[in-house]
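Customer ticket, subject: "Can you confirm the structure for Prohibitin family protein?"

Message body: Hello, I'm evaluating your service for our small team and ran a test protein. I'd like someone to confirm that this is what the system normally returns, since I don't have a reference to compare against.
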Amino acid sequence: MNNRKVLPFIILGVIVFFVLLGLSSSIFYTINATQRAVVFYKFGEGLNKDYVVQPGVHMKAPWNDVFIYDVQETSKDENMDVLDKSGLSIHVDITVRFKPIADKIGYIYEKFNVSYVDVLVIPEVRSAVRQVMGRYTAEEIYSTKRAEVEATIKEESEKVLNANNVDMVALLIKSIQLPDQIRVAIENKLQQQQEALAYQFRLDKEKSEAERKRIAAEGEAKANNIVNSSLTDKLLRMRGIEATLELAKSPNSKVVVVGSGESGLPLILGNN
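Agent reply: Thanks for trying us out. I re-ran your input and got the following:
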């Protein structure tokens, strides 16, 4: 008799268990370490933009919706055909790195839903690329101002994305493809510029060396003029006599005739 009373409760418990098991995917949800989520309460306050669900296992009412965002840095590649300042077509490959601001994903969902990358990020970046590259010539983009173009595109994209709670990390121009004729002309011009710079360097070096030699020669000439102006016949005779006396002390000297040399200088005879 007691078993008959308990049996309905057991059956009811089994039914409840299987019902809960079937609804578990609608009740329990998991947020990974690189994710955040917002909940839309259909029969309540709607979207609470400032409540961001943190990583872990969570419960919700089956009728509420959970929207999960990846908040780690994301990279997207884009291939584009743009026009330069002169209207020349350029094909560019770019990479943009970005991530949503984790505690603002509720605001992102309110404006762009979960597809914010396709609705916001990519269109804004492509627009900035076209606008910025339209201010430069193909030669500048291809050679001298590539880094400046990258920085300007990032700066202009960043203004819009930051205003919509997306952090712009970096923008890189991976490759630039020009029509072959234009590319060859630019490369030839750059090569000629490098050759001209090398020639100018050699020319400047030779001018510097010539100037150095001129200054050295002028210094030497001035020194000789000073020496020549200080030499007199009497001084030369005195120096000659001093030198002769020193030589006379040598064991090889035999005869010294004083006053018999040219200009009255002593004369040394004998060389044994």
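A couple of notes from the result: Helices lie at 2-27, 105-112, 116-133, 138-144, 146-163, 180-230, 233-248. The two ends are 157 Å apart (CA to CA). Feel free to reply with more questions.
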